Amino acid sequence: METLALNVTMRTQKLLKPRTHLLKSPLFPQNSHVYRTLYCQTGLSFTISCKLRISKDKSNTMAEKVSVAPSLSDEGGNTLGSGGVPSKPRRSTGGGFETLKKLPRRVLAILSNLPLAISEMFAIAGLMALGTVIEQGEAPDFYFQKYSEDNPALGFFTWRWVLTLGFDHMFSSPIFLGTVVLLGASLMACTYTRQIPIAKVARRWSFLHSAEAIRKQEFTDTLPRASIQDLGVILMGAGYEVYLKGPSLYAFRGMAGRFAPIGVHLALLLIMAGGTLSATGSFRGSVTVPQGLNFVVGDVLGPSGFLSTPTEAFDTEVHINRFYMDYYDSGEVSQFHTDLSLFDLNGKEVMRKTISVNDPLRFGGITIYQTDWSFSALQVLKDGEGPFNLAMAPLKLNGDKKLFGTFLPVGDPDSPNIKGISMLARDLQSIVLYDQEGKFAGVRRPNSELPIDIDGIKVVIVDAIGSSGLDLKTDPGVPIVYAGFGALMLTTCISFLSYAQIWALQDGTTVVIGGKTNRAKVEFPEDMNRLLDRVPEIVSSSQSMPSDNISG
Amino acid sequence: MPSSRRDTIDHIMNSVPNLNFLIKIKGFKIFMIFLTLEHILTHISFSMVSIVITIHLITLFFDEIVKLYDSSEKGMITTFFCITGLLVTRWIYSEHFPLSNLYESLIFLSWSFSIIHIVPYFKKKKNHLSTITAPSAIFTQGFATSGILTEIHQSAILVPALQSEWLIMHVSMMILGYAALLCGSLLSVALLIITFRKNRKILCKSNRFLNELFTFGKIQYMNERNDVLQNTSFFSDKNYYRSQLIQQLGYWSYRVISLGFIFLTIGILSGAVWANEAWGSYWNWDPKETWAFVTWIVFAIYLHTRTNKNLQDTNSAIVASIGFLIIWICYFGVNLLGIGLHSYGSFMLTSN
Fold it and tell me: Of A28, A383, A499, B302, which is least surrounded by CB within 10 A?
């Protein structure tokens, strides 16, 4: 970019003479005349040079003249190669067409209204909070009892409210989804009518040509005996993009911080779009399969919306090779593993993987998660006969720990009060056995081959067969949502950056500086003061300086 | 020869039947050392923060003593290193990132407060944050070490769903976010109190000492005001300084909340990605998730109110104060109920 113009060098040789501050001399007032005329004649052709220094010792008349030359600004702007296109006034095409055209604009104006957006956000927050307070997805009877009309919560809130407004399934209720859609519309309207124009303005860098305008900024300072070029160099060193034209300087930093909020809104829209696709175009299903058995993916998956279309991968057959658990030393489960094989229609194995919690299997758009487990059966030898497969039944107890039990009948199976050996297990690791009276008989591990003698019956626990609880899903929305997530994280971080603008004007020997920023309003003046302290002061005592120092 | 070596090892194992047992004993000893170290660190950090608070109170009631202020800063740095040491110790002996239960997350929260306190100190910037962060650190630290939670001081084993690299990212980001948002919203609460009191003062000008009747909770904010007022003894300037202070509070609250908002966003999103890996869905409308989202929305509202000049300061401060309550609901309330998928380390589970 040639926009880093810092020092002005005219194409004439004459002006190259005063190179340093020290050379500032009584010569300059004469030069200034030349300077001025050149300025007006040739327009400006600036080149970038950090080495060359022009004298700051311009006379006051000079400054006045320069500020009279705004007609050059457009040309100068183009020379510097950064398109400063002024906004075009919108022209009305007139007629009845106009009123038609006005309607969307009015809708846009209403939607992009900040208080409306804020109230939408409050509404969503409130509805979500309500959704966690009211029990979700229960049968109507539950709400009849909990929110009975005899004893309404807050004096008015009964089951009629819950059921008519769909608060029993809050997060898919029309009210909630409607508010979200409205917020999405507000997001779009706000981005279109507010953020993009602001960003357009920000892209257009503009010089301020009067000291008054500069002094109106949030931060202002005046540096006597300073050079705008020095300021430019220092600002550039601090990461600013600096534009210089004649006596005016414009610099900015952190433009990304200006654009990032647009990105945040777009990312949110992307997430909403992805979420909608997820809700309408996915399949899910869960299955509990004993070790050694098969299932077909398509049988398990059920569509969630009208966009759900099955793929070829739905014909895949899944075989559970093995299901096992890892344990801590204390005996608690540390991880579940399922060894899965996938077979296509021809019976060919296309994939094999051992999945565990946090490590799902992905194949052809289908993801298989390890989510649950169960105790399928117990293989036992009774007095050396068998092995018998005893189906394990889940026993509901209070608490969320699992407990499974089975029963090995002893004696005549046709007698009315049948007795037998009960076996209980919390996991696949150890089986607790109770005798016919219900007394504790012992604990055996599967595969230990150690028989236990209960009332003369020898029982050997051969194996414990678990079943793996798998969740299956296809979700076409995930890539979009993830893209939105990435964009949202990035743009939120960038949004923290501050967009700072600085204007400066060389007014004789003094430099008037003004600046503003959109976020870091307290740090900005501190930073500016630190930067301005580094601007060198020009020791311009023309009397004391020997004039014979001047050389070509 | 490998086989002969194995024989030798077998031989040693057989000749010392209690070797296994001895190894266990040694492990237990190391464990005990860790436990003692942890106790020492906990106590040092807790007493340090108490001293810092005392110093703050002294500087409030008497004139600002520079030396005391310096020592309070040093105390906070010591606290920071103690809590860091505590977390590292736990990490080493539990062999997973120490964020698996409420106690650990509280410790991490007070660590976050102290890091928020320390960063501006090293940048040589004096601001009002320190008056918020130091008491916040002591309250969380005190709560974590107090009797209520003693049963869950033991670092718990990780359930299968928590065994993921995402644990570090998600939980640390969430808690850093909570800490920053809590600080920011407390600044906003301070702003509200000062604004409210200013109005009240106009109503009853005669009663100047009304301020002094305000209770302990507001003492820190008085302290802030003293900081600002220290340069002047002119009461006529009071209103000017007060409006300055309000602006400053609003500004710092805004910056800290913006920072916390970034952490919260990253935390929620990484949690969503993790959920998609572990549970098969990136969003489940689980109560904790939902409340985190509510928090996010409330602070998004705050950030939007800041963009509008008409709504700045008081209105945005009210929103931030609402956010303050909502963070606590999200952080504690949901765990207290022990519902949903995020119920790890809740009170209920451990008491069972």
Answer: A383
Predicted confidence at residue A68, as pLDDT, reads 35
Residue B115 falls inside a structural domain: no
DSSP string, A438-482: S-EEEEE-TT----EEETTEEEEEEEEEEEEEEEEEE-TTHHHHH
Of chain B, the end-to-end C-alpha distance in Å amounts to: 54
Q: Residue A510: its pLDDT value, please?
A: 86
Nearest to A448 by CA among A434, A431, A466, A461: A461
CA atoms within 13 A on the CB side of B24: 6
Q: Which residue has the tokens 């539950």?
A: A142
Q: 3-state class of A369 per DSSP?
A: strand
ipTM of the complex: 0.77
* Distance from C-alpha of A547 to C-alpha of A20, rounded to nearest angstrom: 13
How far apart are alpha carbons A292 and A376 in whole angstroms?
11
Task: Specify whether the CB–CB gap between A274 and A481 falls below 8 A.
Answer: yes
Is the separation of the CB atoms in A421 and A408 below 8 Å?
yes
Q: Which residues of A touch B307 (CB under 8 A)?
A: 114
Number of compact structural domains in chain B? 1
* Nearest neighbour of A521 by CB, restricted to B160, B251, B265: B251
Q: What is the pLDDT of residue B334?
A: 74
Cα angle at A19 between A13 and A25, to 5 degrees? 100
A186 in the same domain as A213: no
Yes or no: say if A248 and A5 are a contact pair by the CB < 8 Å rule. Answer: no
Exposure class string for A373-401: b at 16+ Cβ within 10 A, else e? bbbbbbbbbbeeeeeeebebeeeeeeeee
Structure tokens at A238: 């601090």
Partnered with residue A363 across adjacent β-strands are: A366
Minimal C-alpha gap between B137 and chain A (Å): 25
Contact call for A136 and B285, based on CB within 8 A: yes
Least confident of A376-385, B120-129, B238-247: B120-129
* B39/chain A closest Cα distance in angstroms: 24
Mutate to test the interface with B, among A120, A122, A127, A132 (most CBs of B within 10 A): A132
CA B340 to chain centre: 24
In a domain, residue A528? The reply is yes
Q: End-to-end CA distance of chain A, in Å? A: 31
Distance of CA B29 to the CA centre of its chain: 32
Upper half-sphere CA count for residue A30 (Cβ side, 13 Å): 6
d(CA B114, CA A10): 57
Verify that A317 and A436 share a domain, yes or no: yes
Task: Name the DSSP class of A151.
Answer: S
Confidence of residue A277 (pLDDT cuts 50, 70, 90): very high
Residue B160 has which token pair?
Answer: 């299968």
In this model, does residue A167 exceed pLDDT 50?
yes
Is residue A201 very low, low, confident or very high in pLDDT (cuts 50, 70, 90)? Answer: confident
Cβ atoms of A275 and A477 within 8 Å: the answer is yes
- Same domain (yes/no): A329, A454: yes
Among the ranges given (B226-240, B258-272, B275-289), the one the predictor scored with the smallest mean pLDDT: B226-240
Contact criterion met (CB below 8 Å) for A56 and A509: yes
Q: Which of A196-205, A246-255, B127-136, B324-333 has the lowest mean pLDDT?
A: B127-136
Q: Show residues of chain B in contact with A369, CB under 8 Å.
A: 278-280
End position of a domain, from candidates A158, A183, A200: A200
Q: Are A406 and A378 in contact (CB under 8 A)?
A: yes
Which residues have CB under 8 Å from B292's CB, separation 6+?
A: B174, B264, B267, B268, B271, B330
Q: Are residues A219 and A125 in the same domain?
A: no
> Are A301 and A388 part of one and the same domain?
yes
The three-point CA angle A217-A220-A223 to 5° equals 145
